[in-house]
Amino acid sequence: MHTNSLYQEVILDHNRKPRNYGKLDHANHQAVGHNPLCGDRLDITLQLENDQINDIAFQGESCAICKASASMMTAAVKGKSRLDAETLIHEFRELATGKLDTTHPHHLGRLTVFSGIRDLPTRVKCAILPWHTLHAALNSITSASTEANHDSAHAISSKS
Amino acid sequence: MNSATVSLKPEISASFDAEKIRADFPILKLKIDGKPLAYLDNAASSQMPQQVIDRLVRYQTTQHANINRAVHYLSEVATMEYHAARCKLQQFINAREDREVIFTSGTTDSINLVMHGYGRKFIKTGDEIILTTLEHHSNIVPWQMLANEKGARIRVVPVNDKGELEVDEYEKLFNERTKFVGLIHVSNALGTINPIKRMIDFAHQHGVPVLIDGAQAAPHIVIDVQALDCDFYAFSAHKLCGPTGVGILYGKAALLESMQPFKGGGDMIASVTFEETLYNTIPHKFEAGTPPIAAAIGFGAAIDYLTAIGIERIAAYELSLLNYATECLNDIPGLKIIGTAAEKTAVLSFTLDGIHPHDIGTILNQDGIAVRTGHHCAQPVMQRFNVPATSRASFAFYNKKTEVDALVAGIKNVQKVFL
Asked: Measured between CB atoms, does B358 come within 8 Å of chain A?
């Protein structure tokens, strides 16, 4: 495993200049994501209208992997339908955990720069946190966590 | 008060043959991604020398049986060796009697034993428990559980900007409701050596017993529980070159006898009927079920190994490594050392401007350098210094200056990646 393949220029660039960084004033969906293992925290605010993500922003304290993942995620889902966003969330989780067969068609595009994370199990959660949090925001769950909580989050989202 | 620091003599560290010692540790020959391993995560867990590995193999191949039970040969040998390990620990901490040493699964288990055995019996509604900002979660959470159950209150000793306890503030916390003190000997997150003797004496003036979490101290400081006069002292084998899954709780005999058992089961009883159970004497009262026999015997072998080298020599050598590493790291622009107490063990917690510890840890790993990144199970310490996490290099007596150099080069490489 060569870590340099993970800390590629595109990830470093998004870490230096995160896109969609901040907080939306007129958000109608939001969630806070926590990674209790490292104390990282991420706020996501978004504006959803007719099941389309009109605008999205994130802010928080996190490592480069998490911040770049959040930045690229917001860029990828802005303007997309809720359904498309959920597809990306699913595919990204599969990619990060090494379950996605990238030889089959998928929608991740440049997000595949995160494929190297599958070799660093302790860092997978850093990359996935923004996506957990987006999922929570889309499903009106106010908080998400990389630990235990996301199971209950799923349970709540299935009811909503 | 720290005898390790007082005993520092340059000629000791000069005569310390780290290369010869390194040869005892097979794992140090590992290469990580083609790079020689620089294991700088000793505060999390230390490595095991061949002597301890061999002792475990000898036990498993020629001595294993359950203890305190059968009359056959192996059971008697295992019982004797397990007891011998207890006696080695007794001598290591200079306890008055071997029955004051209880084998537990580790420091956390030891603290939980005191919380259940002492705390649940003697701490009542409205009582106060004093802890410090430097505590590891293992010496916070059990007491919070107790406080919630009993309606007791936790008072916290603050630390100054160097990471030293404010002992004057500690003394002001005492009142007639104070019933217990839990105190970390050496901070795992910062390396601060706390003035525990003074703090124990003060608590005793108020008739308050003191538990010392010695997980980070026992590998680096000579422990004399009689001189300290602490009521409880806890540490784990795996930070002392021993196996995981075993540790000890030292307790003054009279206190241990006054306490209720923590776990019920075999071996901790004198007699059982369905009407009542008479508990066994200490230490057996607190060792329910089959204990970690192999690990305890390995713990004894680790104590033999460390004692043969000498904790004072270890401490002196580690201090020379700490001083060298502190000097080198202070020269790196953008690096800030968190925890600059006058009295420290060889722990360097640091932050790099604009770079998250997890990224530092991952990139250092690429160079074969193992450091811990995160909150070190001491979130109140992180909150005190207003950082979410730090990177922590922690040294053992088998580390060498070239590994400090590798760390420095690794940190500069991290900065280059994020330039």
From this structure: yes
Q: Where in chain B is the domain with CATH 3.40.640.10?
A: 53-307
Number of folded domains that form chain A: 1
Residue B244 has pLDDT above 70, yes or no: yes
Over residues B198-217, the pLDDT tens digits come to 999 999 999 999 999 999 99
A4 occurs within a structural domain: no
| CB of A2 less than 8 A from some CB of B | yes
The C-alpha atoms of residue B285 and residue B138 are separated, in whole angstroms, by 23
Known catalytic membership, residue B377 = yes
Provide the 8-state DSSP code for A103.
T
Q: Which two tokens stand for residue B327?
A: 């000097």
Is residue A67 in some structural domain? Answer: yes
A1 within domain boundaries? no
What stretches of B128-171 adopt beta strand conformation (E)? 128-132, 153-157
Name the pLDDT band for B51 (thresholds 50, 70, 90).
very high
Local structure of B357: helix, strand or coil: helix
B136-145, B291-300, B379-388: least confidently modelled range = B379-388
pLDDT tens profile B213-239: 999 999 999 999 999 999 999 999 999
Token output for B159: 């630390």
State the average pLDDT over residues B143-164.
98
Helix axes B311-330, B293-309, angle to 10 degrees: 80
Q: How far is it, in rounded angstroms, from Cα B212 to Cα B111?
A: 9
d(CA B282, nearest CA chain A) in Å: 38
Inter-chain touch A63–B375, beta carbons under 8 Å: no
Domain encompassing residue A75: 10-159
Q: Is the pLDDT of residue A82 over 80?
A: yes
The whole-number average pLDDT for the span A64-85 is 96
Closest Cβ–Cβ partner in B373, B389, B417 for A7: B417
Q: What's the gap in Å between the CA of B258 and the closest CA on chain A?
A: 38
User: What CATH architecture is B3-43+311-417?
Assistant: Alpha-Beta Complex (3.90)
* A1 touches B at CB < 8 Å: yes
Give the class (CATH, top level) of B53-307: alpha beta
Q: For position A141, which CATH number holds?
A: 3.90.1010.10
Strands (E), B274-314: 277-279
| Residue A57 placed within a domain | yes
Q: What is the pLDDT of residue A142?
A: 73
ipTM surpassing 0.95: no
